[in-house]
Amino acid sequence: MKLPPYPIFPTLSGETISLRQIVAEDIKDLIEISFYDGIQATSVQKATEMQTKINLDYANGNSIHWGIADKLTNKIIGTCGYYRGLDKGAGELGCILLPNYRGQGFMTSAMQLAIEFGLNTIKLNRIWAITTKTNEKAIQLLEQLNFIKIADLEDNEIEYELRTN
């Protein structure tokens, strides 16, 4: 396994998006999708504080959090990454996209890049994701990416796991 942090923060590139490190100039565009421990940011200051915690988690080898950048503008339109389990050879994959960019294939590309990185670079043995039972678009995305439902959880949540064979 090759856990974070890395000597150079990994940038991953697809046809329409790239996954890159979030910088201070990006924060203002991400307030509505900035979360930490299930709490949403309400200001640039709160989003900045959350990003500082996310960066510390990365520095401690506990996660990797990318901004999803539209390749035409380099504007961050969402985030994705692995947020827990890395020390056990597993990764919980999470993602969120700004509403104006949903339904255009950006998240599918981002998740494919993140999955490939998790399997081939970090060498994860298991990749999983948790969403709510009512988030039909997330469920559809996970199933399209070869995840299978493995558990019903509390608080109306369900767990999916990547099927690798």
TrEMBL record:
<protein>
    <submittedName>
        <fullName>GNAT family N-acetyltransferase</fullName>
    </submittedName>
</protein>
<dbReference type="InterPro" id="IPR051531">
    <property type="entry name" value="N-acetyltransferase"/>
</dbReference>
<dbReference type="InterPro" id="IPR000182">
    <property type="entry name" value="GNAT_dom"/>
</dbReference>
<dbReference type="InterPro" id="IPR016181">
    <property type="entry name" value="Acyl_CoA_acyltransferase"/>
</dbReference>
<feature type="domain" description="N-acetyltransferase">
    <location>
        <begin position="17"/>
        <end position="165"/>
    </location>
</feature>
<dbReference type="Pfam" id="PF13302">
    <property type="entry name" value="Acetyltransf_3"/>
</dbReference>
